[in-house]
Amino acid sequence: MNTSLGTVQIRYGTYQGRQYGWGRAMNVPPPSGGLYLRFEVDTDGNRIPDDSAHFNLGTDGFNWTAGYPTSSSSARAFRACVLDLFENTCSEAGSRTPWW
User: Fold this and answer.
1) Three-class SS of residue 93?
2) Which residues contact residue 87 at a Cβ distance below 8 angstroms, ignoring those fewer than 6 apart?
3) Residues 6 or more apart from 18 whose CB is under 8 A from it?
4) CB 27 within 8 A of CB 11
5) CA dihedral 43, 46, 48, 54 (to 10 degrees)
6) pLDDT tens digit sequence for 11-68
């Protein structure tokens, strides 16, 4: 998803036989010291975050979060967003991915 603060994506892959999802930010304009990547996880299907993590964006404008195990259950979903220092949720639709 392209946003005014850069591109934010949900990615997935397999590590040691287990599938994980994570957030990735690219093309974040420098300086990005006041921006961060937020990764949100819904575990019960209500599309309200039950877990989340923040990652400060580096000056290269490219960063990713730690992985979180995926699930075959539709209750597990992820989304990510790029936020400025004063925001604390992915509530702004223009700065986040859809739930995946």
Assistant:
1) helix
2) none
3) 69
4) no
5) 30
6) 999 999 999 999 999 887 766 567 889 999 999 999 999 999 888 887 665 688 989 9
